[in-house]
UniProtKB/TrEMBL annotation:
<dbReference type="InterPro" id="IPR023026">
    <property type="entry name" value="Trp_synth_beta/beta-like"/>
</dbReference>
<comment type="similarity">
    <text>Belongs to the TrpB family.</text>
</comment>
<protein>
    <recommendedName>
        <fullName>tryptophan synthase</fullName>
        <ecNumber>4.2.1.20</ecNumber>
    </recommendedName>
</protein>
<feature type="domain" description="Tryptophan synthase beta chain-like PALP">
    <location>
        <begin position="65"/>
        <end position="378"/>
    </location>
</feature>
<dbReference type="InterPro" id="IPR001926">
    <property type="entry name" value="TrpB-like_PALP"/>
</dbReference>
<keyword id="KW-0822">Tryptophan biosynthesis</keyword>
<dbReference type="Pfam" id="PF00291">
    <property type="entry name" value="PALP"/>
</dbReference>
<comment type="pathway">
    <text>Amino-acid biosynthesis; L-tryptophan biosynthesis; L-tryptophan from chorismate: step 5/5.</text>
</comment>
<dbReference type="InterPro" id="IPR036052">
    <property type="entry name" value="TrpB-like_PALP_sf"/>
</dbReference>
<keyword id="KW-0456">Lyase</keyword>
<comment type="subunit">
    <text>Tetramer of two alpha and two beta chains.</text>
</comment>
<keyword id="KW-0057">Aromatic amino acid biosynthesis</keyword>
<keyword id="KW-0028">Amino-acid biosynthesis</keyword>
<keyword id="KW-0663">Pyridoxal phosphate</keyword>
């Protein structure tokens, strides 16, 4: 990597880019600063420790089941009649999404730093379930914080997390409120490690999560070269906070010939409809009032992408034109779900179906030798009640 590489950020202050347009930072109170600096030092030391990295790799293979398959979606490809379609099947990881890779890395880091307890936030419950599984494996107590709106619709992940021994704390609202509460608890308890679920919040979390999840893109590079003899022409993933997307594209940020697309929920599309602001420890795009005093945002069927903001690296990449960001409506997400379920026999989570909605649009108009890869980042079991409520009659 060169100094000007898009893969080298953020800088020592946690910013992606420079000057007034920089995104990220460490916009927190004085009480949290020492804890974050301690975490950053612990992270920098850990990633230089080959024994730590070897332990992470070992558990990625033997506990998570990595690498996840790169799958040729032959039936969908034929149905759409355009580009050749590949799925990066992250939903086949242990705990059924991409989240567990990040959870594993951060719990191992907390263990290395001799932390005694863990706290995490979650929207779809997938990060809570994944972190609970890893916490159980390494015998560490975990409290998961979720908004009551999300709890009401993704109970399967919550049940599993409780089976793993985790406790659930409910707060009014959704993912935004859960993050705020988790940070508040973390800041007042020095024995806690906050296991952040996405590339959001104050530095150093965006970089830590980016580092953990970038294994996705490295696997895609190796698998695509082995299976296809070349790299994909286009990479697509959904984007809430943005961890599965950055995990997929980080490896390819310095390769402009590969088109990269992130797809938000239309109802909470911060990169399409938001403005730069500072909240939850970071400067990034967010849906907010004109004076920046209050956050805004609607409701999406995909709990994990219903977030009023987005990770600061995505805001930087948007402004630089390195990644294209678009959005998908609930209707488009449900239609994509039906198509993939009926053609490929895959029950996907609703979040990656935002990416699938964009994939369907893109693939139809591309030649047959064009290669598109979708990050299928989660399984649909958690969403079956929601899917049945909205489109269950379509399958009868």
């Amino acid at each position: 990597m060169t100094k000007n590489s898009y893969k080298t950020g953020p800088d020592e202050l946690g910013y992606f880019g420079s000057g007034e347009s920089a995104m990220g930072g460490m916009a927190v109170g004085e009480t949290l600063m020492p804890v974050l600096h301690e975490l950053n030092q612990g992270f920098e030391e850990a990633i230089k420790d080959q024994s730590f990295l070897d332990e992470f790799d070992y558990h990625c293979k033997h506990y998570i089941g990595r690498p996840s398959p790169l799958y040729y979606a032959e039936n969908l490809t034929k149905k759409l009649g355009g580009a050749k379609i590949l799925f990066k099947r992250e939903h086949l990881n242990h705990t059924l999404s991409h989240k567990v890779t990040n959870s594993l890395f951060q719990v191992l880091l907390a263990k290395r730093m001799k932390k005694r307890a863990l706290i995490c936030e979650s929207g779809a419950g997938q990060h809570f379930s994944a972190t609970a599984a890893v916490a159980a494996k390494f015998d560490m107590p975990l409290t998961g914080v979720m908004g009551d709106i999300d709890i009401a619709r993704v109970n399967q992940n919550i049940i599993k997390a409780k089976h793993y021994g985790a406790e659930l704390k409910s707060v009014p609202g959704t993912l935004k409120e859960a993050i705020t509460e988790a940070i508040k608890t973390f800041s007042s308890n020095p024995d806690y490690a906050y296991i952040c679920g996405s590339v959001v919040s104050s530095a150093p979390y965006p970089r830590i999560v980016q580092f953990a999840q970038s294994v996705i893109g490295r696997e895609i590079r190796e698998q695509s070269m082995e299976q296809e003899g070349r790299l994909p022409d286009m990479l697509i993933a959904c984007c809430g906070g943005g961890s599965n997307l950055i995990g997929m594209i980080h490896e390819f940020l310095d390769e402009p010939e590969i088109i990269k697309i992130g797809v938000e929920a239309a109802e909470t599309a911060a990169l399409s409809n938001g403005t730069p602001g500072i909240m939850q420890g970071m400067k990034t795009y967010m849906l907010q009032t004109d004076d920046g005093s209050k956050s805004l945002g609607g409701s999406s069927l995909g709990a994990g992408i219903q977030y009023f903001s987005v990770g600061p690296q995505h805001s930087f990449l948007r402004d630089q034109g390195i990644v294209k960001y678009t959005s998908a409506t609930d209707k488009e997400i449900l239609e994509a779900y039906k198509l993939i379920a009926s053609t490929e026999g895959i029950c996907s989570a609703l979040e990656p179906m935002a990416g699938a909605a964009e994939l369907i649009k893109q693939a139809k108009n591309k030649p047959k030798d064009y290669l598109i890869c979708l990050n299928l980042c989660g399984t649909g079991e958690k969403d079956l009640n929601t899917i049945q409520e909205h489109i269950g009659k379509d399958f009868e």
